[in-house]
Amino acid sequence: MSWPQAPELARPRVLRQRWLDLSFIHWAVEPARVAQYFPAGTRPDTFGGRTYVGLVPFRMVMFRSFLETNVRLYSVDATGRRGVVFLSLDTNWLPLVAGSRSTLGIPYRWARMQHNQDGGWHTYTSTLRWPRIKASSTIETQVGDRIELGPLEHFLTARWGLHLSKAGRTWYMPNEHPPWVLHRAELMTFEDHGLLASVGLGDLGSRPPDHVAFSTGVPARFGLPRGPVLR
């Protein structure tokens, strides 16, 4: 099937990033299971009657190279804009944590992290360095052949914005990026010592994920937040 293209991003375009070496790990859940985590004016977006929780470790380049692991949900608002809601974003670049939390309310947390690659084998480790929360993880994925894109891959990764809460209101921050090239991947190791529990989803790690994929990455650009989103 053809891959959807990002809507044209209105100016000004305020931020450029590169997302690299991403492992997409997803669990399907009932929408009611996670509905409490969505900002006002948004709700869980669904595929086949269920929504998804994503765990995505990767490398990012924005002024410099650093690492990130995020736990994310999939949202839609009353205007039909489909986006991402981040429950946590752990990174080893401390200035990003302070800047993103204060200006946009994005829940970044500081962590000690590593990423190693050996052929198609990727290992991501993280130990949170955050007040009153103990969490660490080791994630290993083995990358395989390129995937023929289908409706589920579209649902999970063709999202050009995020819904975020700031100053008691919900905003939509748009982005654009080229179509993803995805590869089949297998989750070889997932040692979760409090990562999912730290965002209220500790039971997910007790079962295998429902979808795993990998991408070498895409460039991305962001526009100014739009809103507020109406209830």
UniProtKB/TrEMBL annotation:
InterPro entries: ADC_dom_sf, DUF2071. It holds the Pfam family DUF2071. Gene3D superfamilies: Acetoacetate decarboxylase-like. This is YqjF family protein.
